[in-house]
Amino acid sequence: MNSFDIQFHNGQFHLFSSKVSYICELHKDAWLLHRYWDPRLTAYHGANCPEPVKRTFAAAADPEEPAFSLEMEPQEFSCPHQGDYRESSLALRRQDGWPAGRFRYQGYEITEGLYAPEDLPHIRPLDGKGAKTLSIRLRDEASGAMLTLRYSVLEDSAAIVRSAEITNEGTGPIWVERAFSALLDMPYDGEELVTFHGTHQKEFQMDRRLIGHGTISFGSTRGASGPQYPPFAALCAPEAAEHSGEVRALQLIYSGNHCVRVERDQYDHLRLTTGIHPEGFSWKLEPGERFQTPEAVLVYSGQGFNGMSQVFHQLYTERLFPRQWAGRTRPILLNSWEMCYFDVSEEKLLPVIREAAALGFELVVLDDGWFGHRNNSKSSLGDWTVNREKFPNGLTPLLDCARENGIQLGIWFESEMISPDSDLMRAHPDWAARFPDDAPLLGRNQLVLDLTRREVQDYVLDTLSGFLRTYPVSYVKWDMNRHMTDPGSASLPPDRTGEFFHRYMLGLYRILHELTARFPEILFENCSSGGGRFDPGMSFYMPQTWCSDNTDALDRQSIQYGASYMFPPSAISAHVSAVPNHQTGRMIPFETRAALASSANMGYELNILDLSPEEREQVREHLALYKEERDLILGGAFYRLRSPFDGNLCAWMLVDRKREKAILYAFAASYDVSCLSAVLKIPYLDQKKLYVERNTGRRFSGEELRYAGLAVRFPQGDFPAIKIVLQAETMS
Ligand code: DGJ
Predict the structure, then answer these.
(1) For atom 4 of ligand 1, which residue has the closest CA?
(2) What is 5-320's CATH topology?
């Protein structure tokens, strides 16, 4: 049997990889029903299918089979008014105003590889590793709508990728009013729901809750995926924890309005569905036109949340992030923001570049404040020309200085925005998104550019391309600092106003696609006031994300812990900053700040010219050590060991792929009794190997570390951290 495949037999579609099976089935060659999404099965005979039982209130889908009702059956998609009263995943309306959606099976296709929708971020085909895609077609006769459900199975992965496409094969227009990417039905078995919530400076906070009857719904209507409820949900067995238990998770590859709905109905059926948020959404399809939903990634893990994260980390590293950055060294950067804020200049930056190079930094990033007449957040977004008062000779002296000192230069843009006080606004007042009769609302003193319009996209592309050719920087920080109101465009006719948000995303994705293709050597870093749009959609174009504007090493523990559920350390940027911390005022020891940042894609943002000789030495040593450990940190496996959401302690580890060297970090929020006797079970080493602890020379077997655990003792003082390095002993 192949290690992964899609087979169609006796009306059953069976997708499997070495780790997982996904099965759906045709009923009477008309209805598509869900059967199984769990560990790999070699054969399935319908053991979990209940006999149809006629229920009061249930509508019969088939007049010849009164007990067969869609309300009782597990589905692959669901339309309203068809007898399935649970959360629907697709809603269509015809030109005459009537709803449509009585879909019946038409046929299927199994193709090699992935579908890879060209105008949306997606899981990438990968040379040398296989994938297969199943496309199931269903048709609604009354409207002529064709629904294609796509499922991809990937070699060597427990992930399944799903999306849907609606094509208008009728004679009149159809409005798509809801088009979710995936719907999953299963019997409720005590599952709990894990989600994340957050805000600016407090991203990726975890919630775990019981699922009662009714619907739990969350998402974003902000025009961005948002830190409030990032596009992720996991259903887990009540006993599931980091190291063990069943978890089923999904994530949407999308950066705009999205939602997740979880419904437990009156018969204890559990439904999980996700897609573009339906609020304010509609999409007109003329005959022959099609609408493609974003992809959803479904991950099954029988090894708890760490098992789930390993699947996301591997999948995203291999098949989501830009390929040119796979396995490539990421520079240690020094960012100007917390050093200078808007007060940047040639005079200030030249000595910083020289000193940065001397300390061992590899890239200096010129953040906000370098363009137009920008001295605060009130002006100049859109005017991407160098401020000659601050940089009288342009940016060439900075680039020259960086080159002479053997390091790189990077720059900040917030290209999706327009300041009312900008030359761009004076030239094109209609380029800000707005409704015709309301003055658009400001956020951080700025408006949103109407990226639904091709000419606005082209302006952004041309201006940035021109700039990047004049000033060949090595890195771009792509920021986005407000959420949307007034989602209106002068270019959209009245029957297409509901298309604004998604068209904006398509416009943004086009810009990012073009720009990253034109400048493949530039490292693009995603940012939205920190991790405000940290999602797989943006990560398709930019391999790393500034995870939070909160650089406090205590608050960062939960933020980075949360982000690691989906993203590997290479995707999570973390900076060492000054004390007292600019966001919280905390005085956290250097060792703890360094440990926090060194667990991810590390950089700094503090004034390195202010360091005392001792501090300077500390930084120099830290950078040198990080360079030694960088391949393991950014290329190894990351496992969570102790959750900051459960108490005072937080711990995680990084281990190389051969399980020969591991770095373990443990943090305490405060020094208390829990710091005297913490024992960490470490089930991710080679049980047959013997490990030497670098600092003490003590030896432990991998087996012992797994089952007995490692006792750790924190140093006294505020915000303690411990670093433990375990090296496998060479076997004689
Ligand atoms: C928000 C970002 O998260 C910060 O790092 C900084 O770039 C500011 N914007 C600049 O305005």
Answers:
(1) 529
(2) Beta-galactosidase; Chain A, domain 5 (2.70.98)
